[in-house]
Amino acid sequence: MDINELKKELEKSIKPYRGSFLSFEELPKEGLDKKEIIEMMKELYKLEEPRWKDGFVSGSVYHGDTEHIDFENQVYAINSQSNPIHFDIWPSAFKFEAEIVRMTANMLGAKKTNDEIVGSVSSGGTDSILLAMKAYRDWARDTKGITEPEMVVPTTAHAAFDKASEYFCIKMKRVPVGNDFRADIQAMQAAITDNTIVMVGSAPQFPHGVIDPIEELSEIARERGIGFHTDACLGGFILPWAEKLGYDVPPFDFRLPGVTSMSADTHKYGYAAKGTSVVLYRGRKLRHYQYFVTTEWPGGLYFSPTFLGSRAGALSAECWAALVSIGEKGYMKAAEGILKAGERLKEGIRQIPELYVLGNPLFVIAFSSDILDILAVCDIMSNKGWSLSGLQKPPCVHISLTQRHAQPGVIERLINDLKEAVAYIKQHPEIKGSLTPVYGMTGNINMQDAVKQFSYELMDLFYET
Ligand SMILES: Cc1ncc(COP(=O)(O)O)c(C=O)c1O
Q1: pLDDT tens, residue by residue, 78-89
Q2: How far is the CA of 405 from the centre of ligand 1 (A)?
Q3: Which atom of ligand 1 is nearest to the CA of 205?
Q4: For the whole model, what pTM was predicted?
């Protein structure tokens, strides 16, 4: 498949409802019947629900039980008018947020250090990372006079760090990882300069699900007097329980004195609805560099702790409700199910001789092959209804396991389908993965602009009716 064919294929999947559902280019003259709207929403929901509900999807919906969703929706409905920027009208919003921050901080080692661990509720993992990087930039400028800041980040850390680099003019120093896909301690150390403001490690990283050597890296950062951010967007709400369950989890949180900030996503393994995450700091001073205040505006004294102005207090209410309704025992049980699914999946992949697991992951598992086009295997899996992620450098396929995969039979179905897909590609080695040409281009510096253009066109397509 060439890139134009791929574009056409993607268009079909991005715009599947063209012609089959009501659509509008202008506001309807008369408002529609509300019943009709609800019916349409239900129909769309029904079309989209089975794929994630039955465990065909990597990550995305981390809990997904009907009873949990109904409860969360009820909480959202009660709080749907709440807006934390009007803290005088809805003091409940910051009650919930303050407690979300405290519960998360204490889960991530705040009680095991003499420093005060503080934080904020943000709208998601990317938002938490952006807030932390902006805080480091302003901290370094203010306290060290650094005007050309740099960050030292393993190649495997999330793309949100590139976004932060671009948005906040912080030079990105991406450092190649070792053969085990963990950050390379010596190479990270060597990348530090007098302009470095922060070093980053992930627990775990998105592509291969492995945990960086946070203890060693954060110690280097501490000795150099720079910040260290642990990105635990994925692991924040599962690794503490994995550790208690006896899994081999290297230290990654505020128990390490060099860790000065963390991100942990409540909307992933915290099982809240999409739209919340927690960013944490060692000490109020660093958090102050995240805040925004203007005193001169005719609209009055204006301040906001995070990027957004008005925002949905209901999301924080339902996040708080998820945390306290599930509780420690509930999180432990959920983690146990997911980690066991991870063990079964790794074992199943090991029994497929053409495949191997990358690194030593727990619940986000990447696999590849030395003899097959693994991205072609990924396409066959898509034909079978799976939504797995095809990755690059090296080409591999990954799945983030959730509670949907802990359901009986799901991992077994995944392994069976994988066996069939591998057998098919073995018989048809001429089939190339649809992402193979795109990833071929990203590896060629002259073609990277073409890939950017392709991505712009896809994003334009999102906004076409
Ligand atoms: C390790 C890691 N960090 C950050 C993010 C970004 O999170 P979000 O998609 O909520 O912005 C992700 C998302 O998968 C992630 O896996």
Answers
A1: 999 999 999 999
A2: 19
A3: 1
A4: 0.97
